[in-house]
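Mods, move this if it's the wrong board.
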Amino acid sequence: MLDEFVWGRVSRISPEAPVPVVEVQAESSYPGGAANVARNLRPFCASVSLCGAVGEDSYASKLRGLLADEGIETGALVATPHIPTIVKTRIIARQQQVVRVDREKYRGSIAEVTDRATEIVTELMPSVDAVIIEDYGKGFLCQSLKDRVCTLAREHGKFLTGDPNPGNHLDWSGVDLLKPNRSEAFAMVGRTDFGAADDPLQDADLLDVGSTLLQKWNLNGLLVTLGEHGMILFEKGSPPYHTPTKAREVFDVSGAGDTAIALYTLAICAGATSHEAAEISNHASGVVVAKLGTATLVAAELVASFAQNEK
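Not the wrong board. Structure tokens:
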């Protein structure tokens, strides 16, 4: 997706309708959606390849250019005339989002796109350390593509994580770790969330949902992000592990889940234990929520977060 931001100020209400008039002061664009996961990885990796669908339009060209500027490989993007590139335009005034305008057209999975994506991932698999499947429920990721990627990852011994969308009812069997947020986790087991307990390790509903998801798809790991309560890691054969939030200020939570799965996967590939990876992921998420917009972080900020939280 392409994330656009229009930054401005509000000084009056429109005489045409009871809405604020935003005087534009600046505009910016960033790679969004699954591309934001790639952006979070790039400062820590020698190379990152992104596979996804884009349209054959000017927005796709702009998105490719932005990705190339950040050193992200774009050769795996699949262009199709059947759908437009997804664009989300946020209008911000005084650090508050006034409105968001979405340009997208859902068409469901397209066989030729799925086949081409499978061919590309097959070519890339021997050269990567891990694969992240990011599902935004926009039609690109179908059960067939997810299963083919899982099979390829298993054949090549690659670490595989997934970030699910409850609206896209996939069988997530075969991934090493799944990373939903709390509301997504409850939705995937058809449970109503009646509110979080102060201590996630004493939250009976949450613990039951985590155990259920582990069993449902025979997962080795499940990392549930909990907003102001941090994260909780469920693993087969081990007690749940909770890491409290490291955020000191929260300006924008959009994209925090992208950071969480990116840094967890990265840490595992770098030799971290699952608990260490959860801590690294949590610290990284705490850094990005203190920034406005589609944010990422660099290694120095991650190190600084650990130093500050040791005081």
